[in-house]
């Protein structure tokens, strides 16, 4: 069951992360077009080659988003999909594109997620963004009735609750989770576009940073920035005429079971477990075959649980695993070699794309100073909400 591995990512593009965006504000449609053009140019393909697209939400269109984009781009597509999985969306986009290609619906699919500021709305217009994070404040939702009135809202609270539950079950070593942040910051110092490329940190720096939601310190929590990403996924036949080494999509998984932790059946066994098992089973490879691991990292506890539930160590063994392994690009278990969202920057919804793009760059041998030697296989994960919607992806070079 699953993919044959005949679809590949052949083009990538991003708007580099910016802490304070000072350029001209473009609509999301304009950003979509810019990213698509850059990704197609990277692949050596034309806009006329495109016959499929995958997107997320779009501020300029509450409904019919794929057709809005197709119209704007001048495309006639045989496959169009809108994905709504939070930070798990980018990987969800990629595997849907790969599946559509293997089904013969299309052979060149663009997936994009803009993440730069857009022109301001008039004062009377409603804002889609909500300070309640993953929780819905619309009456009728369980969060509006049972969570938000009692202060259980947004992401910091939920992830701190997960970390505290982990401590109660398995013990908690703050130096281990701080090491995740410090090792990823080391990786970021080798990435010319990373937000924190000039600011190395130590484990002690992480522990000395402000406590935001016990036990999570400021430097263990992602910082949103402006940016955006896109990829081009094609058939094997089209990939042969593109410019770079293709990164073939050989396995994927997707699993979700709740929206907020209040309703999770088990805070410590996350949906990434079933997703990862499906991805590795589909690709027919072992965890030991993976050369780089690009994990969604909105918080350090997210990385820890993703390492465990993806099967790289046993449940409750994550703290010791992190202590015993070098997570930098020069180490024995390279994690988020671009710095991850913690140190590269979380570019909105496109934040989950940074892991995919870094996996592709490593397979291509284009990661410059942070290149992992002989990289043929990358494992990527995506997380939406509060360990709610999770996706897994295996990329392999031909």
Structure explained in plain terms:
The chain is α/β, with parallel strands linked by helices. The protein has a single domain (7-117, 221-397), classed as Thiolase/Chalcone synthase (Peroxisomal Thiolase, Chain A, domain 1, 3-Layer(aba) Sandwich). Helix content is 34%, strand content 18%. The protein contains 13 helices and 11 strands. It has helices at residues 28-43, 65-73, 89-102, 142-147, 154-170, 174-188, 203-208, 236-239, 272-283, 300-309, 318-324, 340-343, 351-364, and strands at residues 7-18, 52-55, 79-82, 108-115, 211-213, 216-217, 226-235, 247-256, 292-294, 377-384, 389-397. The strands form 2 sheets. It has a 9-stranded mixed β-sheet with strand order 3-2-4-7-1-8-11-10-9, sandwiched between helices. Helix 6 (174-188) crosses helix 10 (300-309) and helix 6 crosses helix 11 (318-324).
């Amino acid at each position: 069951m699953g993919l044959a591995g005949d679809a590949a990512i052949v083009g990538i593009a991003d708007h580099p992360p910016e802490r304070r965006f000072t350029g001209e504000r473009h609509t999301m449609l304009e950003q979509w077009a810019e990213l698509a053009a850059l990704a197609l140019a990277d692949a050596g393909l034309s806009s006329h080659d495109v016959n499929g697209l995958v997107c997320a939400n779009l501020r300029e269109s509450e409904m019919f988003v794929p057709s809005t984009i197709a119209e704007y781009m001048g495309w006639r597509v045989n496959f169009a999909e809108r994905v709504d999985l939070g930070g798990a969306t980018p990987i969800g986009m990629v595997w849907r594109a790969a599946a559509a290609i293997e089904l013969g619906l299309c052979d060149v699919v663009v997936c994009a997620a803009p993440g730069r500021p857009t022109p301001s709305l008039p004062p009377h217009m409603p804002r889609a963004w909500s300070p309640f994070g993953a929780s819905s404040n619309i009456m009728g939702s369980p969060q509006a009735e049972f969570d938000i009135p009692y202060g259980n809202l947004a992401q910091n609270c939920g992830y701190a609750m997960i970390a505290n539950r982990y401590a109660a079950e398995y013990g908690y070593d703050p130096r281990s989770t701080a090491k995740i942040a410090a090792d990823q910051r080391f990786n970021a110092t080798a990435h010319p576009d990373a937000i924190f490329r000039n600011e190395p940190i130590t484990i002690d720096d992480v522990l000395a940073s402000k406590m935001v939601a016990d036990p999570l310190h400021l430097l263990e929590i992602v910082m949103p920035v402006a940016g955006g990403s896109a990829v081009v996924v094609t058939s094997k036949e089209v990939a042969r005429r593109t410019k770079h080494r293709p990164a073939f999509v050989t396995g994927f998984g997707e699993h979700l079971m709740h929206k907020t932790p209040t309703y999770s059946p088990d805070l410590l066994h996350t949906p990434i477990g079933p997703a990862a098992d499906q991805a590795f089973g589909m690709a027919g490879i072992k965890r030991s075959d993976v050369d780089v691991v690009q994990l969604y990292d909105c918080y350090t506890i997210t990385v820890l649980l993703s390492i465990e539930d993806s099967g790289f160590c046993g449940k409750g063994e994550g703290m010791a695993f992190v202590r015993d392994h070098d997570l930098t690009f020069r180490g024995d278990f390279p994690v988020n070699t671009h710095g991850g969202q913690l140190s590269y920057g979380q570019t909105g919804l496109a934040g989950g794309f940074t892991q995919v793009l870094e996996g592709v760059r490593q397979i291509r041998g284009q990661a410059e100073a942070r290149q992992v030697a002989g990289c043929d296989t990358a494992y990527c994960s995506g997380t939406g909400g509060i360990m709610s919607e999770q996706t897994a992806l295996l990329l392999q070079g031909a």
